[in-house]
Amino acid sequence: MVAADVARGVTRMLLRHELVAIPEVPLEGGRRADLMALDARGRITIVEIKVSRADLLGDGKWREYLDHCDRFFWAVPAGFDPSPIETEAFMPERTGLIVADRYDAAVLREARTDPLASHVRKRCTLAFARRAARRLIAVHDPEAIPIL
């Protein structure tokens, strides 16, 4: 449940900053972002949640997420030792760091913005919107469509 608590706190913090997020977003190439958020200007943020050192160090796929977002953050629970995230392997010059619990979150290091190409932004934004709409329909009518 720690990852769910971190996701909840991060989602709340993002919402306060006018970013709307959805969890578990499949990306092209078979990857899945823990959280993806859109701001009012259409910029895309991906947040990857790590709750253990082994989970963090064993994640060799995260760089592929950079092709789907303008900003990328790591999110960890309070008490997590973020020292590995500060090493060059985790691109601290590009990635941000958030610490969260189930009620809130705080940005410890801001992520650099690297704007997506317009055609990539359009593709990612349309996929985000369609996924969010499907999930909303499924809440109101679970038999209408499968959640993709």
Structural description of this entry:
With 148 residues, this protein is an alpha/beta fold. It has one domain: 3-Layer(aba) Sandwich (Trna Endonuclease, Chain: A, domain 1). It is 29% helix and 26% strand. The chain has three helices and six strands, in the order αβββαβββα. It has a six-stranded mixed sheet. A hairpin with a 5-residue loop joins strand 2 and strand 3. The model has no long low-confidence stretch (mean pLDDT 93).
Number of helices: 3
Q: What is the CATH class designation?
A: Alpha Beta
The share of residues in helices is 25-40%
The count of strands amounts to 6
Features:
about 150 residues, alpha/beta, Trna Endonuclease, Chain: A, domain 1, six-stranded mixed β-sheet, 3 helices, globular
List the helices and strands and how they pair.
Elements: H1 2-16, E1 20-26, E2 32-38, E3 44-49, H2 53-57, E4 71-77, E5 95-100, E6 105-109, H3 118-140
Parallel strand pairs: 3-4, 4-5
Antiparallel strand pairs: 1-2, 2-3, 5-6
Question: Quick gist of this model?
Answer:
This protein is of the alpha/beta class and 148 residues long. Helices cover 29% and strands 26% of the residues. The protein is built from 3 helices and 6 strands; from the N terminus they run αβββαβββα.
